[in-house]
Amino acid sequence: MHVKELLSLKDKIVLITGGEGKYGKCITKGLAEADATVITASPFLDDGEKVAAGFRSKGLAVEAMYVDQADHDSVVKLKQAAISVTTGSTKFNFTQVAISPARIFFKTLLGRI
Predict the structure, then answer these.
(1) How far apart are CA 63 and CA 23, in angstroms?
(2) How many distinct structural domains can be found in the chain?
(3) Which residue segment(s) compose the domain that 48 sits in?
(4) How far apart, in whole angstroms, are the C-alpha atoms of residue 95 and residue 97?
(5) The whole model's pTM is what?
(6) Distance between CA atoms of 43 and 71, rounded to whole angstroms?
(7) How far apart are CA 42 and CA 21, in angstroms?
Protein backbone atom coordinates (compact mmCIF):
# COMPACT_ATOMS: atom_id res chain seq x y z
CA MET A 1 0.00 0.00 0.00
CA HIS A 2 1.27 3.47 -0.91
CA VAL A 3 1.83 6.06 1.82
CA LYS A 4 -0.79 8.36 0.27
CA GLU A 5 -3.36 5.60 0.64
CA LEU A 6 -2.38 5.04 4.27
CA LEU A 7 -2.67 8.74 5.07
CA SER A 8 -5.61 9.51 2.79
CA LEU A 9 -8.29 11.85 4.06
CA LYS A 10 -10.72 10.89 1.30
CA ASP A 11 -14.32 11.34 2.44
CA LYS A 12 -13.14 13.37 5.47
CA ILE A 13 -14.20 16.93 6.18
CA VAL A 14 -11.76 19.25 7.92
CA LEU A 15 -12.74 22.64 9.30
CA ILE A 16 -9.83 25.03 9.77
CA THR A 17 -10.01 28.43 11.40
CA GLY A 18 -7.46 30.83 10.01
CA GLY A 19 -6.91 28.82 6.84
CA GLU A 20 -6.32 31.96 4.79
CA GLY A 21 -3.36 33.07 6.91
CA LYS A 22 0.35 32.46 6.54
CA TYR A 23 0.41 29.08 8.31
CA GLY A 24 -3.19 28.21 7.61
CA LYS A 25 -2.64 28.17 3.85
CA CYS A 26 0.04 25.51 4.22
CA ILE A 27 -2.17 23.38 6.45
CA THR A 28 -5.15 23.84 4.12
CA LYS A 29 -3.07 22.82 1.12
CA GLY A 30 -1.64 19.73 2.79
CA LEU A 31 -5.01 18.49 4.00
CA ALA A 32 -6.66 19.14 0.62
CA GLU A 33 -3.81 17.37 -1.18
CA ALA A 34 -4.48 14.39 1.10
CA ASP A 35 -8.00 14.37 -0.44
CA ALA A 36 -9.89 16.00 2.45
CA THR A 37 -12.72 18.42 1.84
CA VAL A 38 -11.42 21.50 3.64
CA ILE A 39 -13.54 24.34 4.97
CA THR A 40 -11.53 27.36 6.01
CA ALA A 41 -13.37 29.79 8.26
CA SER A 42 -12.41 33.24 9.50
CA PRO A 43 -13.76 36.77 9.82
CA PHE A 44 -11.80 37.64 6.66
CA LEU A 45 -14.10 36.02 4.12
CA ASP A 46 -12.71 37.86 1.10
CA ASP A 47 -9.19 36.63 1.86
CA GLY A 48 -10.48 33.14 2.58
CA GLU A 49 -12.39 32.99 -0.68
CA LYS A 50 -9.31 34.07 -2.66
CA VAL A 51 -7.28 31.29 -1.05
CA ALA A 52 -10.05 28.73 -1.57
CA ALA A 53 -10.51 29.75 -5.22
CA GLY A 54 -6.79 29.33 -5.82
CA PHE A 55 -6.87 25.82 -4.40
CA ARG A 56 -10.06 24.95 -6.30
CA SER A 57 -8.37 26.03 -9.54
CA LYS A 58 -5.81 23.28 -8.81
CA GLY A 59 -8.54 20.69 -8.36
CA LEU A 60 -8.56 20.73 -4.55
CA ALA A 61 -11.79 20.69 -2.53
CA VAL A 62 -11.60 23.88 -0.44
CA GLU A 63 -14.45 26.16 0.65
CA ALA A 64 -14.29 29.44 2.57
CA MET A 65 -16.85 30.47 5.17
CA TYR A 66 -17.28 33.36 7.57
CA VAL A 67 -16.99 32.99 11.33
CA ASP A 68 -16.44 35.36 14.22
CA GLN A 69 -15.40 32.99 16.99
CA ALA A 70 -16.33 35.50 19.68
CA ASP A 71 -19.94 35.54 18.44
CA HIS A 72 -21.97 32.46 19.37
CA ASP A 73 -24.55 33.02 16.61
CA SER A 74 -21.77 33.24 14.03
CA VAL A 75 -20.36 29.89 15.14
CA VAL A 76 -23.82 28.28 15.01
CA LYS A 77 -24.32 29.62 11.47
CA LEU A 78 -20.92 28.23 10.46
CA LYS A 79 -21.89 24.81 11.78
CA GLN A 80 -25.15 24.86 9.82
CA ALA A 81 -23.45 26.10 6.64
CA ALA A 82 -20.67 23.52 6.91
CA ILE A 83 -23.18 20.70 7.27
CA SER A 84 -25.15 21.92 4.24
CA VAL A 85 -22.01 22.20 2.07
CA THR A 86 -20.87 18.73 3.05
CA THR A 87 -24.14 16.99 2.15
CA GLY A 88 -25.37 16.68 5.70
CA SER A 89 -22.34 14.98 7.21
CA THR A 90 -21.79 15.83 10.86
CA LYS A 91 -18.42 14.06 11.12
CA PHE A 92 -15.73 16.71 11.14
CA ASN A 93 -12.11 17.02 12.11
CA PHE A 94 -11.21 20.40 13.59
CA THR A 95 -7.92 22.20 13.30
CA GLN A 96 -7.46 25.62 14.79
CA VAL A 97 -4.71 27.73 13.28
CA ALA A 98 -5.49 31.09 14.86
CA ILE A 99 -5.50 31.93 18.56
CA SER A 100 -9.08 32.58 19.68
CA PRO A 101 -11.71 31.74 22.28
CA ALA A 102 -11.47 28.07 21.27
CA ARG A 103 -13.43 26.55 24.15
CA ILE A 104 -16.66 28.33 23.21
CA PHE A 105 -16.02 27.74 19.50
CA PHE A 106 -15.53 23.98 19.79
CA LYS A 107 -18.34 23.51 22.30
CA THR A 108 -20.73 25.10 19.83
CA LEU A 109 -19.49 23.14 16.83
CA LEU A 110 -19.56 19.85 18.69
CA GLY A 111 -23.09 20.47 19.89
CA ARG A 112 -22.29 20.77 23.59
CA ILE A 113 -23.79 24.19 24.07
Answers:
(1) 17
(2) 1
(3) 3-109
(4) 6
(5) 0.74
(6) 11
(7) 9
Report the SS3 class of residue 14.
strand
What distance in Å separates the CA atoms of residue 86 and residue 105, rounded to the nearest whole number?
19
- The residues near 71 (Cβ < 8 Å, ≥ 6 apart) are none
CATH code for position 87: 3.40.50.720
Rounding to the nearest 10 degrees, give the CA dihedral for residues 74, 77, 78, 82: 180
28 contacts 38 by C-beta, under 8 angstroms: yes
Binned at pLDDT 50, 70 and 90, residue 100 comes out as very low
Per-residue pLDDT of 2-40, as tens digits, reads 777 777 888 888 888 888 888 889 989 998 998 888 999
**Cβ distance 14 to 39 under 8 Å?**
yes
